[in-house]
Structures are given as C-alpha cells and as structure tokens.
Amino acid sequence: MMEPGLNHILFVSILLFFIGVYGFFTRRNLITMLMSIELILNSVNLNFIAFNKYLWPGKMDGLFFSIFVIAKKSSID
C-alpha cells in the first residue's frame, strides 16, 4: 500500500486552510466563523505532524505542538 508523501499532506492542509479562511471571511454567523477557525487550526496541526514525520522522524516536537493547540482550542470553546 502506498503511503502519502509530504506534498500530498501539505496539499490537503493548504486546502483546509483556505476553506477555513474563505468561510471565516464570507460568513456572518458566529458559529460558522468558529467552525472556520477550527478548520484553520486543524490545518496547522496537520502541518506540524507532517513536518515532524518527514523532516524529524525521531523527535516528537510536532506532535506536542499539535496537542497543545488542541488543548488550547478546547479550553476556548
């Protein structure tokens, strides 16, 4: 089975980010704006994990940053 490369993961992350930015700037409902911010933060988490896996496979820094972002995001909501 083929494993997705860094380019594929970054492409998905870019799509999530721009969908979130588009949703944030075009919607007036606060709930959908918060959902758009969630998409943006999830794309950042995906970047952290992808770069951690492919550039520094022995370290866990990207995973820890993602956990901190998720914990902070949960405390805000």
Number of helical regions:
3
Uncertain spans: none
Major pleated sheet: none
The strand count comes to: 0
Q: What helical percentage do the residues reach?
A: over 70%
Beta content comes to under 5%
CATH class: Mainly Alpha
Number of self-contained structural domains: 1
* Termini gap: 38 Å
Strands, helices and their partners?
Blueprint: H1 6-26, H2 30-55, H3 61-76
Helix pairs in contact: 1-2, 2-3
Structure description:
The protein is mainly alpha-helical and 77 residues long. It has a single domain, classed as Helix Hairpins (Orthogonal Bundle), CATH 1.10.287.3510. 82% of the residues lie in helices and 0% in strands. It is built from 3 helices and no strands. Helix 1 packs antiparallel against helix 2 and helix 2 runs antiparallel to helix 3. The longest helix is centred in the middle third of the chain and has 26 residues. It is flat, with a radius of gyration of 14 Å. It starts with 5 loop residues before the first helix and ends with a helix. The mean pLDDT is 87.
Note the main attributes of this structure:
3 helices, 77 residues, single chain, flat, mainly alpha, 0% strand, Helix Hairpins
Kindly summarize this structure in a few lines:
The protein is mainly alpha-helical and 77 residues long.
